[in-house]
Amino acid sequence: MASMEGTVALVTGATGGLGKAVATGLAREGALVAVVGRSAARAEEAMADIRSLVPGALLEPLACDLSDQSSIRAAAGGFLARHDSLHVLVNAAGVFRKERHITADGLELTFATNVMAYFVLSNLLQDALKNAATAGPRTSRIVNIASRYGNTKLDFDDLQTAHGTYSYLRSTPPTMLARVLLTQEFAERLSGSGVVANAVHPGLVKNTSLLQDVGGPFRWVTNTFGAPAEKAADTPLWLATAPETASVSGKLWAKRKELPTPGMGSDPEARHRLWDACAQLTRMP
């Protein structure tokens, strides 16, 4: 990894698992890392853990409920009040829920957290990402944690799993494809700005908090066959820091190798349609 001294990074899902491992890696390379947690207390706890591994790490807490658009806007506003530039944005937070819940915005919780949070936060911070790219020699990076095992297509008539029987196997896989599509659309819209966007399939990650709402078999498989978070963080950190990935954008990666995008990932109209659907569901000006 390249030295990140003098840079600013923001990592969601940084209070545990893969997100914390990525935040730790960025801090180890010298970046100032905004550690996003559901509460300030959880962010502070994660910061203490990171500093135990990286003494002197430059960290700041950022409380944000990523299922709530007003909380996302408040968190982004607080961050931008302190920083006009952002060099790395890692969207690593996600949920895997077995029951359907509705958020304060009237959205299904899995869709709101796994898709809308990526859309809203990245849009709110894109000017800071552009500023960082303009002010220095570095390319700014958006790294979105996704999966190669998302659905092959999205049901645009039921993006929030409102019809039929709800389950995590119906609700979560489409959000992974949606993350890839949004990554591609961000890459297209940010082309020429000095900001690149890529998605990562990290594979199974041991002891992930993502499965805290899920039964034993799923946890057993993940903890038995998954990789430690520190190993799974290698490709996201490579995309966030390496000189050789500075000009790569709109791709899906695993183990530092490009993957074919699943299903609708080869259809530009699908990502345009998803972008428009997300825009209609936000309360952003």
Automatic annotation (TrEMBL):
Keywords: Oxidoreductase. The keyword Oxidoreductase applies. It comes from the Bacteria. SUPFAM superfamilies: NAD(P)-binding Rossmann-fold domains. GO terms for molecular function: oxidoreductase activity. The keyword Magnesium does not apply. This is NAD(P)-dependent dehydrogenase, short-chain alcohol dehydrogenase family. It comes from Arthrobacter cupressi.
